[in-house]
Design a protein that fits this description.
The chain is α+β, with helices and mostly antiparallel strands. It has ten helices and six strands; from the N terminus they run ααααααβααββαβββα.
Length: 346
């Protein structure tokens, strides 16, 4: 016959071992909770929530049914955690590949930092040999910061270089513009030269507006050079230019055609308007000019023959200028005939 006392002792022993087993089981779950809590947010957080639910209902009711239930819940939670970790590992490997490629590409394009960038790319590739996903994440973040910092430096240096290039380009453009202006400027008078006059006439014709041209040739200018010297002749040309320019409109362009010949391009001007300007030049710009030389002065009279023409439909720039030149020489011939007749009468 079984002793009641022995039965009770065995029961107490069984209960004690069950309690110890349960406490060990709960302790293991709590240790797992602590370990998972150390994982970065993401992979372990869902598992941690499920584990805390298991611990809560076991602490509240450590019945055999709940212990059995906890085993099934724990297996399911661990399975889900493993799947998440495996997926994260694949994602990290792809991130590592992209970062390594980015580092290598930057190394090729950023020659000044090529060695440093290749070193970072090598570090990123070495992460693939790590077993701990937490360490993988930590190193990925660190190397990502390195790459970002390097990219910012490369970008700043590139921007500085781009600004330097832009300054050099602007300087080159300005020099080119100055050279172009110089190539179309008469050094003595500061007016546009023959090239500038021809291009201006072409531009005026292309605009399709009214356009008139005056061609001026000083009378007897060679005699001034012969009698007073070329320096005085140059001074006279500049003084005459200033007088003529005061007779032109602000929109008109005066250029030196060559020697003692000048051309005025009058944009938007009809032949009548051009002839009005011719009369103004004759009345206000022609006349006596004083030449100073070695403490002495001489007075010379300056006049000019002027050919005034307006652009005709389908007429080219060269044809227009040729007509102006012809009109000017016709005017000069008439003046010379008039001067000869006047001499005969005397």
């Amino acid at each position: 016959m079984i002793s009641v006392k022995k039965y009770l002792d065995d029961w107490d022993d069984l209960r004690s071992r069950g309690r110890l087993t349960l406490e060990a089981y709960l302790g293991a779950l709590e240790a797992l909770e602590s370990a998972v809590g150390a994982m970065a947010a993401g992979e372990g957080q869902q598992f941690l929530r499920e584990l805390r639910v298991i611990l809560a209902y076991l602490r509240a009711d450590p019945s055999p049914a709940n212990v059995k239930r906890s085993r099934a819940d724990l297996e399911q939670a661990i399975k889900a955690l493993v799947e998440v970790i495996n997926q994260r590992e694949l994602e990290y490997l792809e991130i590592i590949r992209i970062m390594a490629d980015a580092g290598a590409t930057m190394a090729q394009t950023g020659a000044a930092h090529g060695k440093e960038l290749r070193q970072i790319a090598g570090k990123v590739e070495s992460i693939t040999h790590l077993d701990s996903i937490v360490e993988v994440r930590r190193q990925l973040v660190a190397h990502m910061d390195e790459l970002r910092s390097m990219a910012e430096r490369v970008q700043e240096e590139s921007a500085a270089k781009a600004r330097e290039w832009e300054r050099e380009l602007a300087s080159a453009r300005e020099k080119l513009r100055a050279t172009a202006v110089l190539a179309e400027t008469d050094s003595l008078t500061g007016l546009g030269n023959r090239r500038r006059a021809e291009s201006a006439v072409e531009e005026g014709i292309a605009n399709g507006e009214a356009l008139s041209v005056l061609l001026l040739d000083l009378d007897n200018f060679k005699a001034v050079n012969d009698a007073h010297g070329h320096a005085q002749g140059d001074s006279l040309l500049k003084a005459f230019v200033n007088s003529v320019r005061r007779c032109l409109r602000d929109s008109d362009l005066m250029c030196r055609w060559g020697g003692d010949e000048f051309v005025a391009i009058m944009y938007g001007a009809t032949l009548e308007a051009a002839q009005d300007v011719v009369e103004r030049i004759r009345s206000q710009a022609f006349g006596e000019f004083v030449l100073e030389r070695a403490g002495t002065s001489a007075i010379v009279y300056v006049g000019a023959s002027i050919g005034a023409v307006a652009h005709r439909p389908n007429e080219s720039a060269s044809e227009l200028l040729e007509r102006a030149d012809q009109m000017m020489y016709e005017e000069k011939a008439r003046s010379q005939r008039s001067a000869a007749r006047a001499g005969d009468h005397r």
